[in-house]
Amino acid sequence: MVPGGRAREVERGARDVLDPVHFDYLAGGAGDERTLTGNEDAFARRRLVPRVLRGPGPVDLSTDLPGVRLAAPVVVAPTAFHRLAHRDGEAATAAGVAAAGGLLTVSTMATTAVEGIAATGAALWFQLYVQPDRAFTAALVARAEAAGCRALVLTVDSPVRGRHGRDERHGFTELPPGVVCENLRAADGRVRDLVVDPDLGWDAVAWLRGRTTLPVLVKGVLHPADARLAVEHGVDGIVVSNHGGRQLDGAVSTLDALPAVVEAVAGRVPVLLDGGVRSGVDALVALALGADAVMLGRPVLWGLALGGADGVRAVLEDLTDELAHAMALVGAHRPADLTPDLVTVP
Ligand SMILES: Cc1cc2nc3c(=O)[nH]c(=O)nc-3n(C[C@H](O)[C@H](O)[C@H](O)COP(=O)(O)O)c2cc1C
Ligand SMILES: O=C(O)C(=O)c1ccccc1
């Protein structure tokens, strides 16, 4: 079954097919889930002020990002444990992304090895949780690079783990038998536990630079001062993210945080946004407020749960089609035509 409908329907469908404990792990957020709901609410508050009679010409969504040229400014965000959503896990996700001509960010916490994910032919970035064991982290970076990942996405919003009430209520603490984080398998064959590093600082960017020639993005920036620091430390891109409301509950919505970050970055590196993007119109709003691309987290997981690779492909193609259609209706031919004056808060 291939879902073709809108994000809400796909989410409802996924809820119907998934173990409720696993659905809640994937859907849930930290604390009272204010930031989780705030991300979507921020999009719902915006309205578009379209331009008319802007002339003919096809819509061209092509976008250059670190290490990759894409047909549309849409990237799959890194999410853990795809084998909770579908038995084929990240291999199915990657096959769907490849079919849609997209880009998948592989999570450090993937339940399929990065080498196996790369075998699908999908374009990949690799999301990194820097471990206090830097030798192990360097080996993981080398694996990602050897597998053909085109950039590293350093997650910086997790000095400690968020507290997820839904998981606590269910007592969800362990993956099902046979499901493991294959990227945390060490040379000795044993799978390490993830350690988030409370001591991580900006020097981690220079450390990473010394170990890879890949572009490095930082993911999880909300404050414009941090965006400035990221540029000063030589990053190749910034992802405005609150981890889909799974880390600091009460954090600002990503759409509300975006304009100040864009102003601070002043075009020096690409700025991406994730959190609450559920439609092509949402993507258009983020681009108009200055994002160079959006990332999708949960919608891709729901497509995966419902339809495997075909479900992922359908989610990506639907959203991209809707973005192109909405671009035509606001009078824009390419992403650069999308400017903040097209968005209002009535
Ligand atoms: C189930 C789940 C697992 C996630 N795992 C990771 C992860 O391993 N690394 C990471 O940097 N972000 C992770 N994230 C955050 C996503 O990359 C992204 O920031 C967020 O999902 C975007 O919001 P959205 O789900 O509203 O699209 C995860 C999110 C979800 C929902
Ligand atoms: O669940 C998450 O959002 C996430 O990033 C994560 C972090 C550590 C282990 C598993 C998932």
UniProtKB/TrEMBL annotation:
Pfam short name (any one): FMN_dh
CDD domains per UniProt: alpha_hydroxyacid_oxid_FMN (cd02809)
Segments forming domain FMN hydroxy acid dehydrogenase: 1-346
Keyword list, A-Z: Flavoprotein, FMN, Oxidoreductase
Cofactor: FMN
Cross-referenced PANTHER family: 2-HYDROXYACID OXIDASE 1, S -2-HYDROXY-ACID OXIDASE-RELATED
Family: Belongs to the FMN-dependent alpha-hydroxy acid dehydrogenase family.
Name the record gives this protein: Alpha-hydroxy-acid oxidizing protein
Native source species: Cellulomonas xiejunii
